[in-house]
Amino acid sequence: xxxxxxxxxxxxxxxxxxxxxxxxxxxxxxxxxxxxxxxxxxxxxxxxxxxxxxxxxxxxxxxxxxxxxxxxxxxxxxxxxxxxxxxxxxxxxxxxxxxxxxxxxxxxxxxxxxxxxxxxxxxxxxxxxxxxxxxxxxxxxxxxxxxxxxxxxxxxxxxxxxxxxxxxxxxxxxxxxxxxxxxxxxxxxxxxxxxxxxxxxxxxxxxxxxxxxxxxxxxxxxxxxxxxxxxxxxxxxxxxxxxxxxxxxxxxxxxxxxxxxxxxxxxxxxxxxxxxxxxxxxxxxxxxxxxxxxxxxxxxxxxxxxxxxxxxxxxxxxxxxxxxxxxxxxxxxxxxxxxxxxxxxxxxxxxxxxxxxxxxxxxxxxxxxxxxxxxxxxxxxxxxxxxxxxxxxxxxxxxxxxxxxxxxxxxxxxxxxxxxxxxxxxxxxxxxxxxxxx
Length: 438
Ligand code: PMP
Fold this sequence. Notes:
alpha/beta, Aspartate Aminotransferase, domain 2, seven-stranded mixed sheet, three-stranded antiparallel sheet, Pser_aminoTfrase, pyridoxal phosphate
């Protein structure tokens, strides 16, 4: 049966001919160069049968031209939108193309990464390379373990007190937004947390001066959310907790700038904003903190078990880890996190300047010194126009600009993979919208 070319049939192509020519190429040494495909003809033949005992055979052939495309994150495709979602969020276009090219037959292995045993040599090479590239990116010291886990950052809200505390142990939380608030509520079940500062009464628009903080002398740790995704509040420097242990939820600014990992006991992040698809949670933990879990800790949340088994105690989110690995390679090839931060600052500057320069038509409520480089919340002076703003922007292929349901207004998430062109287009649209409605 001949099938028409569909986006799905295109996914079946494996244009990565290098690996076919030389299947012995070591898995970990293949360069991260995206291949842009221009498909000229595609014939897909399937022979299927209703008899489940009979195998399905799928044959694909495609004529493709290969264009080396290494310009980082320029959205050139006509069929892609600028996606300002807070997460899951935009991924680098050529990472997606690379994944597409390897989807059907990963590097001559004859399998998709989705089909591989997590204990086979192919997947082990993928997870080891992902860890090693992340270590390079963040300059992670040897005294830290890197874990690739599941359950999202939300699961870490519980895992952290379960692993570091006895039920009566005191812990401090600095609450600068909704995610910090959720973290402390979960910690109440497994420890004795104290909110030493909360920005709630000021609608989470600030971060306090650290000297003003009254940290509990006997607290096991101080927990912060390094970037509050909903409120757009980001720590630019970090407090030094009295007992030396700082823990940070970096879900929404992970790998967006260099970080001195040695200042932290634990850094954790859901992947789905800056480094991959949802389903992977990365935990970077100082090794001496491992091994003290409360007896009731579920096996999956016990850092010792996960660490001893190198994140392979059970079946990990293999495909997600592979995607994170591709993103890490891409970030390294862009020059690492110093370069990434420069790009992020430039994008954020353009957007905040447009908001501040709008004579009050647009407004960002967050105090300037702690405005997030990743999530930019803003409101319209004429709130009744907000729905129209979001609708009109979507017509121009700029989507997911509606603010979080808890705060309203608008929010533009401009993670690493959001191209400068996306921010420029948004700013041009904002100016036009203002001219029309001022
Ligand atoms: N922390 C922050 C800062 C977040 O932005 C989010 C998700 N938006 C979470 C925690 C929860 O993450 P998950 O959905 O992966 O559990």
